[in-house]
Design a protein that fits this description.
alpha/beta, 19% helix
Length: 197
């Protein structure tokens, strides 16, 4: 098995793009979310988690995203910055968009679900003018399928042309439209996930 080798002359190795949010996981588990009262707060979003994980393994990472212009935006930006991630391309929203929030429901060691607030959130406001030729030269981009499916950047081909780079993605297929259930009037959606205990 071969490993990825980074060119040390480049200023950054990887720049994940897209979702950065906050996860609230209950400390009083084994009960419905409606009965949980205490939560621990974590940075969420797979691109953000990829950046943090790679940075802690020694990679030189940046991050491209938009975040809310409030205390939650401060929290996620300061969190990834503390791990040495370049935040020069993390932009604040200008029209009051909120950061995405996820609440975990842990009913038992084998049964859990999440409640996501994703309608019009900050990270979906990232558009191509925020990603330009002045973006630092890097070797790999990391994108997630849901970001490409919902965001106005449209698709990986558009991003490739913008940067004149070969896109390395964990998803070789063209992004598909989101299969998330239609949000109800209270802007919530729900899906099952493996238990995290």
């Amino acid at each position: 098995m071969s490993y990825i080798e980074f060119d040390n002359s480049k200023p950054l190795d990887v720049i994940p793009i897209g979702r950065i949010a906050i996860d609230f996981n209950p400390t009083d588990m084994n009960k419905p979310l409606s009965e949980s009262s205490n939560f621990n707060k974590y940075v969420g979003g797979s691109p953000a988690n990829i950046a943090v994980g790679l940075a802690r393994l020694g990679a030189k990472c940046g991050f491209i995203a938009r975040v809310s212009d409030d205390q939650f935006g401060d929290y996620v930006e300061n969190y990834i910055k503390a791990d040495g991630i370049d935040v020069s391309h993390v932009f604040r929203c200008e029209h009051g968009e909120n950061l995405g929030l996820t609440f975990t429901e842990i009913l038992s060691p084998t049964q859990s679900s999440i409640l996501m607030y994703r309608d019009g959130v900050a990270d979906l406001q990232l558009v191509s003018p925020y990603i330009n030729d002045e973006t630092v030269a890097i070797q790999f981009f990391a994108l997630n399928r849901h970001f490409l499916g919902q965001n106005r950047l449209n698709n990986d081909f558009h991003v490739c042309l913008r940067f004149k780079l070969t896109l390395h993605s964990t998803h070789s297929r063209r992004p598909r439209p989101s299969r998330r259930p239609k949000r109800s009037s209270d802007r919530r959606c729900r899906r099952s996930v493996p238990a995290r205990v």
